[in-house]
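Internal ticket #5521
Category: modeling
Description: The requester needs a full-assembly model to guide mutagenesis choices. All entity lines are attached below as received. Residue total reported by intake: 223.
Assigned to: D.W.
Attached entities:
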Amino acid sequence: DAKTTQPPSMDCAEGRAANLPCNHSTISGNEYVYWYRQIHSQGPQYIIHGLKNNETNEMASLIITEDRKSSTLILPHATLRDTAVYYCIVRADYGNNRLAFGKGNQVVVIP
Amino acid sequence: DSGVTQTPKHLITATGQRVTLRCSPRSGDLSVYWYQQSLDQGLQFLIQYYNGEERAKGNILERFSAQQFPDLHSELNLSSLELGDSALYFCASSVDPSYEQYFGPGTRLTVT
């Protein structure tokens, strides 16, 4: 699976949109971009995933660049409960189905 | 609540002992995954089962084993425990291996 690069940490203002970047320059054509988050020591929580089109669900939006080498997770109105470690993971849709978690991005939402 | 349940929540045991961690996947999910999260290694994939069959292995030690039963619940067995096995153990499940995984709340294992 392709590797991803995320900032180690970032702060976001409560009530504002939080834009979380991820670079995955070696992504292959059959690899999806997945986002998970982990709040303190709870189990990781699935957020969203996409292949090449932008995706939106009730939690977030995922914007993938046209060349698919980077993506941005957008939390539209960050709340204090969104404080977590966010993981951007690239995963093939067949064969190796494991999730390879990196160090993630520690996001702190500030009041 | 993801729908994945894990028991027990906490486990404290001594070196050399053996423990069993249990996972019940979401209703309808056929695939189960086990992950280990320690302070120095982060979240690491251990093993995956699909409909009772082992599908993929990661960095799982020979002292560890797992299985998935006909009712689809899974157990992770850890034996000859060492201090370094102290970690959070997460189970995840998905409908199919190509679908997103949903994680349980984890079991915190402390080896003293």
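Resolution: model delivered.
Comment from assignee: Chain A has a mean pLDDT of 93.
Ticket closed.
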